[in-house]
Amino acid sequence: MNRVAEIAYQGWPNCYRLWNDLVELIITTDVGPRLIRFGFIGDNELAEFPAQLGQTGGNEFRVYGGHRLWHAPESKERTYSPDNSPVTLEQKAECVRVIQATETMTGIQKEMEISLSPTDAHLRILHRLRNHNLWAVELSVWALTAMAPGGTAVIPLPPRGPHPEHLLPSSTLTVWPYTDLSDPRLTWGRKYVLFHQDSNRPSPQKIGASVPDGWAAYVRDGHLFVKTFRHIPGATYPDFGSSFEAYTDGEILELETLSPLTRVEPGGMVEHTESWFLWRGVPTPRGDDDVDGTVLPKLTRLRS
Fold first, then answer.
1. Distance between CA 175 and CA 167 in Å, rounded?
2. Burial of 155 by CB count in 10 Å (0-12 exposed, 13-18 middle, 19+ buried)?
3. What is the model's pLDDT at position 304?
4. What's the domain count of the chain?
5. Beta-bridge mates of residue 278
6. C-alpha 289: how far from its chain's center?
7. pLDDT at 70
């Protein structure tokens, strides 16, 4: 059974809790759009920044934690437009819809449509960007989830193949000027990249990739969090073809999915959907064999 209640949370008086018998999530309407909590009842798989919780207003961008919506490509002027003002929440029969006022700096309006399964640890988020400018804008929907510290991300690589049957490249791996491929937080496998969050290593680290399998995962304290998304073959993605990106520092690890770059005409919109799933009893993987043995079977059952 799926339930909704208005509550106060972490200093924000106007929040909404959605829950079933397994999981809960909390959306704040005092800032955002922002999904600040998701997990099994009593747990939060998402990161929170305690010093920023409950704050509102001001012109400084705050991370807050949780799940947020940006538009790519990244730039200081538009990406870090503050989401410190109240948002509107509409309750529908099958979802809640959270709507931000149009950003004055960009002319873009952000929306999230969030649906929680009545019975399962399954959440669907439809992200929507509307262009209220008088001109067309090229952008990508960019959905970012800040995960709680101490876990390991799993990033699938495209299907492998032998030489000389496969002579052409099949995917891209994107690095930033601050990316360090020798960083021990990265474990390079043949089929997967493992990306570890380490609170003792505060330096920023980020990679992007073309992920045609359309999923990524995070394992922490025996809990497996998976987000699925649509990767469109042949589409043009930001950041040298990245449909998925992962960032970490000493406090969080972010799982980030992106839609293809789209020219959005005045009055138009673009959408991008993620589905979230959560399981208990999954150990932290240390390599490809572990992912194949403990993570992949969960995904196989989802698709069967």
1. 23
2. buried
3. 61
4. 1
5. 225
6. 25
7. 97
DSSP lists the bridge partners of residue 112 as 98, 127
Task: Give, as one character, the DSSP assignment of residue 85.
Answer: S
The identity of residue 120, as a single letter, is D
Structure tokens at 124: 């669907």
Which two structure tokens, joined as six digits, stand for 248? 């970490």
| pTM of structure | 0.96
pLDDT in tens, 148-164: 999 999 999 988 899 99
Model confidence pLDDT, tens digit, residues 13-44: 999 999 999 999 999 999 999 999 999 999 99
Quote the domain boundaries for residue 106: 3-303
CATH assignment at residue 180 = 2.70.98.10
Name the band, by pLDDT with cuts 50, 70 and 90, for residue 171.
confident
Structural Rg of the chain based on CA atoms: 19
Query: Which one, of 188, 176, 243, lies nearest residue 213 by Cα?
Result: 243
Amino acid 84 reads N
DSSP class of residue 286 equals -
Assign 32 to helix, strand or coil: coil
DSSP letters for 105-144:
TT-EEEEEEEEE-SSSSEEEEEEEEEE-SSS-EEEEEEEE
DSSP for 60-80, please give it: S----BSEEEEEESP-HHHHT
Of all residues in the chain, the percent with pLDDT exceeding 90 is: 93
